[in-house]
């Protein structure tokens, strides 16, 4: 057995999985506080990555300015999408809401192709070296950046929901909108904030991936990969989303290992997570962390 | 004869002949008027379905979250009209509603619930405020788990504590005794009275449990089918024969004010 490859793939899996976890958190954030299943989550990555790329390549701005501009843009974008498309859908059947987000997903995918073209583009070199060697493993610098990004985002989310005033307000709104109103929380402000944060963090994830793999419509496919992660975690659990993401990342790479070493089917890594998802959901229909109501004693 | 209403220049809260409709068609309140003077503990009594909760939600603005609206009349608080304001603005102006069924946030701890009570306030002295709430409800301090696992009585205490955190001028309480054992009801009412006296927070308290509510109240209103049918000071109501028959230990539950002669007389007289 090729242990070095296995180790390398496990590390990859963990790093990519944590990134999936961050995107899953963004998805769960919207689902929990606004009850919208956002099929356009992947497009947030895509748009963020392209807009940032545009500021660097077309406008020739330094990275940190382009990045901050992108964050500002995504905040407005998230709020606008919520206000224009999703707010009027409050109280409509969930299937109509899903159709809207699928529609948005297709629209923005095409729009990005129209504006930025169909070929993949790479980011200008932001850092000097691209590969670092840690304990004999070749790890791309971008992967390390991605790891740092994921961990910081997770810690940030934890702090935000545990200690910040807005984070608590979001959890209250997710629990019961009427109760939130009775506490003086503006539910529409919470909705706007959820979409803004989700769009901003997803876009950052898109930029990080874009730096590794280049920007292309493949980015929006990550939104689809995050579904198994989120459903595995239980749809309404942020921790579940993270765990689900890591599991999917590891499974993908494990499947890649088995495939390349023994089976030689090719592309097993893209479908394996979905098979595992089916199996887990058969055993645990609420996902690993999905909540049912607390029984009061 | 005693004066019907307690003499004050201007009540803190004044409801003037309001009508409330749900879903634009269901008329639930049909001309309700009541006054709550500053610093008092006023109780609103009546059978299930009379419109007590609707009255409280009309004041707190929560009606709008249920597709209800004040379609006629007006509500003023400290001389300002509030019936067109939304719930957020009304909390900020100093009215806090503790909803029926406590409605604490079950997947949060006590402290997180309390912090949320102070959502509209300056967050600076929040830990002191939490300590102040724990002085009224010492047993909450020991509960560090999720609020969903608290007993009914503790959840009610948490709901009241959460209201205190907002530092309101007035608290609206919707059936705090619901589902509690008599001993706990006594404890909860005792604390409400203490808060009313010590903090000077005006209370408007809705109850079906007239015995307890009246004993602690300064003034009471009785509602039936969307209207106030009787009001008076504690003594007046406690000594009123109809109230005695129907609400205080009356065991004949088929009786209603509508069937009582004296009530009919009063109505004609009005
Ligand atoms: N959200 C609502 N939509 C429609 N009707 C309602 C709603 N809430 C209450 N009602 C009706 O209004 C009447 C008064 O209800 P409520 O104010 O809850 O009474 P109470 O609190 O005195 O028991 C009842 O007949 C009830 O069915
Ligand atoms: Mg009620």
TrEMBL record, chain A:
<keyword id="KW-1133">Transmembrane helix</keyword>
<dbReference type="GO" id="GO:0005886">
    <property type="term" value="C:plasma membrane"/>
</dbReference>
<keyword id="KW-0812">Transmembrane</keyword>
<dbReference type="InterPro" id="IPR052157">
    <property type="entry name" value="BCAA_transport_permease"/>
</dbReference>
<dbReference type="InterPro" id="IPR001851">
    <property type="entry name" value="ABC_transp_permease"/>
</dbReference>
<dbReference type="Pfam" id="PF02653">
    <property type="entry name" value="BPD_transp_2"/>
</dbReference>
<comment type="similarity">
    <text>Belongs to the binding-protein-dependent transport system permease family. LivHM subfamily.</text>
</comment>
<feature type="transmembrane region" description="Helical">
    <location>
        <begin position="141"/>
        <end position="161"/>
    </location>
</feature>
<keyword id="KW-0813">Transport</keyword>
<protein>
    <submittedName>
        <fullName>High-affinity branched-chain amino acid transport system permease protein LivH</fullName>
    </submittedName>
</protein>
<feature type="transmembrane region" description="Helical">
    <location>
        <begin position="262"/>
        <end position="283"/>
    </location>
</feature>
<dbReference type="GO" id="GO:0022857">
    <property type="term" value="F:transmembrane transporter activity"/>
</dbReference>
<feature type="transmembrane region" description="Helical">
    <location>
        <begin position="226"/>
        <end position="250"/>
    </location>
</feature>
<feature type="transmembrane region" description="Helical">
    <location>
        <begin position="190"/>
        <end position="214"/>
    </location>
</feature>
<feature type="transmembrane region" description="Helical">
    <location>
        <begin position="42"/>
        <end position="59"/>
    </location>
</feature>
<feature type="transmembrane region" description="Helical">
    <location>
        <begin position="6"/>
        <end position="30"/>
    </location>
</feature>
<dbReference type="GO" id="GO:0006865">
    <property type="term" value="P:amino acid transport"/>
</dbReference>
<keyword id="KW-0472">Membrane</keyword>
<keyword id="KW-1003">Cell membrane</keyword>
<keyword id="KW-0029">Amino-acid transport</keyword>
<feature type="transmembrane region" description="Helical">
    <location>
        <begin position="65"/>
        <end position="86"/>
    </location>
</feature>
<feature type="transmembrane region" description="Helical">
    <location>
        <begin position="93"/>
        <end position="116"/>
    </location>
</feature>
Automatic annotation (TrEMBL), chain B:
<dbReference type="GO" id="GO:0015658">
    <property type="term" value="F:branched-chain amino acid transmembrane transporter activity"/>
</dbReference>
<keyword id="KW-0029">Amino-acid transport</keyword>
<dbReference type="Pfam" id="PF00005">
    <property type="entry name" value="ABC_tran"/>
</dbReference>
<dbReference type="InterPro" id="IPR017871">
    <property type="entry name" value="ABC_transporter-like_CS"/>
</dbReference>
<dbReference type="InterPro" id="IPR003593">
    <property type="entry name" value="AAA+_ATPase"/>
</dbReference>
<dbReference type="InterPro" id="IPR003439">
    <property type="entry name" value="ABC_transporter-like_ATP-bd"/>
</dbReference>
<dbReference type="InterPro" id="IPR052156">
    <property type="entry name" value="BCAA_Transport_ATP-bd_LivF"/>
</dbReference>
<feature type="domain" description="ABC transporter">
    <location>
        <begin position="13"/>
        <end position="250"/>
    </location>
</feature>
<dbReference type="GO" id="GO:0015807">
    <property type="term" value="P:L-amino acid transport"/>
</dbReference>
<protein>
    <submittedName>
        <fullName>High-affinity branched-chain amino acid transport ATP-binding protein LivF</fullName>
    </submittedName>
</protein>
<keyword id="KW-0813">Transport</keyword>
<dbReference type="GO" id="GO:0005524">
    <property type="term" value="F:ATP binding"/>
</dbReference>
<keyword id="KW-0067">ATP-binding</keyword>
<comment type="similarity">
    <text>Belongs to the ABC transporter superfamily.</text>
</comment>
<keyword id="KW-0547">Nucleotide-binding</keyword>
<dbReference type="InterPro" id="IPR027417">
    <property type="entry name" value="P-loop_NTPase"/>
</dbReference>
<dbReference type="GO" id="GO:0016887">
    <property type="term" value="F:ATP hydrolysis activity"/>
</dbReference>
């Amino acid at each position: 057995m090729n242990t070095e490859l296995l180790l390398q793939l496990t590390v990859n899996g963990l790093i990519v999985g944590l990134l999936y976890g961050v995107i899953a958190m963004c998805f769960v954030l919207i689902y929990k506080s606004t009850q919208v299943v956002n099929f356009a989550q992947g497009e947030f990555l895509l748009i963020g990555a392209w807009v940032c790329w545009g500021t660097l390549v077309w406008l020739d701005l330094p990275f940190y300015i382009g990045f901050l501009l992108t964050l500002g843009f995504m905040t407005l974008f998230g709020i606008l999408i919520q206000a224009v498309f999703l707010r009027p859908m409050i109280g409509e059947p969930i299937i109509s809401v899903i159709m809207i987000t699928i529609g948005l997903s297709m629209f923005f995918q095409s729009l990005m192709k129209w504006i930025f073209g169909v070929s993949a583009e790479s980011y200008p070199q932001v850092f000097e070296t691209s590969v670092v060697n840690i304990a004999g493993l070749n790890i791309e610098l971008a992967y390390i950046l991605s790891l740092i990004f994921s961990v910081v985002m997770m810690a940030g989310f934890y702090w935000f929901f545990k200690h910040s005033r807005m984070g608590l307000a979001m959890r209250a709104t997710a629990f019961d909108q009427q109760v939130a109103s009775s506490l003086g929380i503006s539910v529409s402000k919470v909705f706007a904030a959820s979409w803004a944060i989700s769009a901003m963090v997803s876009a950052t994830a898109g930029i990080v991936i874009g730096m590794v793999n280049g920007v292309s419509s493949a980015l929006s496919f990550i939104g689809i990969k995050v579904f198994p992660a989120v459903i595995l975690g239980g749809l309404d659990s942020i921790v579940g989303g993270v765990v689900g993401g890591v599991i999917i990342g590891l499974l993908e790479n494990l499947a890649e290992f088995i495939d390349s070493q023994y089976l030689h089917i090719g592309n097993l890594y893209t479908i394996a997570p979905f098979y595992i998802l089916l199996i887990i959901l058969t055993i645990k229909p609420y996902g690993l962390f999905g909540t049912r109501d607390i029984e009061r004693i | 004869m005693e004066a019907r209403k307690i003499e004050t220049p201007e009540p803190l809260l004044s409801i003037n002949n309001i009508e409330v409709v749900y879903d634009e068609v269901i008329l639930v309140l049909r001309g309700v008027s009541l006054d709550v003077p500053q610093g008092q503990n006023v109780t609103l009594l009546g059978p299930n379905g009379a419109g007590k909760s609707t009255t409280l939600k009309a004041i707190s603005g929560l009606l709008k979250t249920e597709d209800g609206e004040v379609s006629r009349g007006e509500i003023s608080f400290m001389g300002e009209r509030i019936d067109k304001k939304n719930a957020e603005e009304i909390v900020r102006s100093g009215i806090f509603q503790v909803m029926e069924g406590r409605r604490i946030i079950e997947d949060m701890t006590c402290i997180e619930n309390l912090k949320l009570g102070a959502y509209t306030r300056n967050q600076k002295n929040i830990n002191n405020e939490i300590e102040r709430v724990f002085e009224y409800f010492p047993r909450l301090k020991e509960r560090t788990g999720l609020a969903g696992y608290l007993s009914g009585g503790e959840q009610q205490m948490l709901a009241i504590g959460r209201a205190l955190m907002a530092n309101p001028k007035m608290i609206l309480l919707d059936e705090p005794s619901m589902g509690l054992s008599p001993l706990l009801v006594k404890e909860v009412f005792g604390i409400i009275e203490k808060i009313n006296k010590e903090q000077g927070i005006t209370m408007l308290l809705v109850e079906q449990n007239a015995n307890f509510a009246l004993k602690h109240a300064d003034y009471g209103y009785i509602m039936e089918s969307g209207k106030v049918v009787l009001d008076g000071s504690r003594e007046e109501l406690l000594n009123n024969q109809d109230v005695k028959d129907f609400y205080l230990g009356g065991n004949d539950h088929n009786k209603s004010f509508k069937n009582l002669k004296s009530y009919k007389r009063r109505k004609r007289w009005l």
